[in-house]
Amino acid sequence: MSYAKIVKVDPINPQQNYLREAVEVLTKGGLVIMPTETVYGIAANALNKKAIDRLYEIKQRPRDKQFSVHIDEKEKMEALARDIPVSAYKLIDKFWPGPLTVVLKSKDKNSIGVRMPDDKIALSIIAQSKIPIVCPSANLSGRPAPVNFQEAIKDLKRLVDFAIDAGSTRLQVESSVVDLTVEPWRILREAAIDRQDIEAVTKEKIVLFVCTGNSCRSVMAKGFLEKRLKEKGRQDLKVLSAGIMMSEGLQATNETRELLAREGIDVSGHHSQRVTKDMIKKSDIILVMEKLHEKRILELAPEAKLRLFLLKEFAKINDNNLDIADPIAKPMEFYEQTFRIIKEAIDKVVEII
Questions:
Q1: What does the pLDDT look like over 30-64, one tens digit per residue?
Q2: Domain 204-352: homologous superfamily in CATH
Q3: Cβ-count burial of 142 within 10 angstroms (0-12 exposed, 13-18 middle, 19+ buried)?
């Protein structure tokens, strides 16, 4: 077998012609040594059987132990996995792109590791290849994972087709691996990210309030819940608010600011934001003001159904209308009535969460 072609690439401003050459090798079923921010890896087309067979032979890896897939966009995780837990979305929101591999249930009812590396060269190759890429560490069985090119190429000169020399990796330690197919989750490898940091992200519960414009009702709910949590010494919850309308950056209405100020709550720094799929997927409980909002949430993320509630369901009000009406353009008395309903519901929510 011939020697691998070796190219030296600037990790900050990588030469695109070399990256395109690496992509061409991968699409044809070749093996490429490339850097990530953690260690050097051997990249291969996950859909090419011959390439994967070569990779298993090089790594001397049991066939029942699959290689993790590397992606360039968070959303691509959903094409690879099923029944993705809220904890997964919290972790990738915090640590991706970065040195974290999450193990999820795969579409074929097995499991799959997924990672989004934080490296310009790796991300560019993955994006340009437009194929699923696996990239286990570039070392023979029993050897340490290589953190510089010299270590990576030493034993693999005749075993791969193309190799990118980008010097030393930035972190020089492998990614941490978290298995989210079990409950409670477990750490399979504690490395670049400490257990303590992983636990801090997964333990924090997220409550999301949604209204129409995110300038009154959801602002009231967020502000009042945060006040109640502070009074109870609760630091294990994070509260978000958003709206379903397109406009962003609006301040809370004057009436909302006045009502909350009476409660000692300052929302002068609030700016409205539009609800996103990411917000929904990482939230443990989603509380909306109207059925219209409920419908929109389910359009964005149908899997959120069991975490989605109308806020008024928690208020002790004997009527069949579970909508909390929008007070925009209404008199102050209407705002006050709306806030009373929200406060009553929040007091009940605090007892439950």
A1: 999 999 999 999 999 999 999 999 999 999 999 98
A2: Response regulator (3.40.50.2300)
A3: exposed
The CATH code belonging to domain 1-72+116-172 is 3.90.870.10
**Count of other CB atoms within 10 angstroms of residue 70:** 27
Q: Give start-end residues of each CATH 3.40.50.2300 domain in the chain.
A: 204-352
Rg (CA), the chain: 25
Q: What is the reported pLDDT for 319?
A: 78
For 331-338, what is the mean pLDDT?
Answer: 98
Query: CA quadruple 153, 154, 156, 161: dihedral positive or negative?
Result: positive
Name residue, tokens 């966009």. 73
Instruction: Give the long-range contacts of residues 230-234, CB within 8 A, separation 24 or more.
Output: 232/350
pTM, 2 dp: 0.92
- Residues contacting residue 139 through CB under 8 Å, at least 6 positions apart: 145, 146, 151, 152, 155
Give 4's strand partners.
none
pLDDT band at 1 (very low <50, low <70, confident <90, very high): low
Distance between CA atoms of 54 and 1, rounded to whole angstroms?
Answer: 13
Pairing of strands 285-288, 308-310: parallel
Residue intervals of the chain classified under CATH 3.90.870.10 are 1-72+116-172
Q: Measured in whole angstroms, how far is the alpha carbon of residue 192 from the centre of its chain?
A: 17
Residue 223 exposure: Cα atoms within 13 Å on the Cβ side = 24
pLDDT digits (tens, 9 = 90+) for 287-309: 999 999 999 999 999 999 999 99
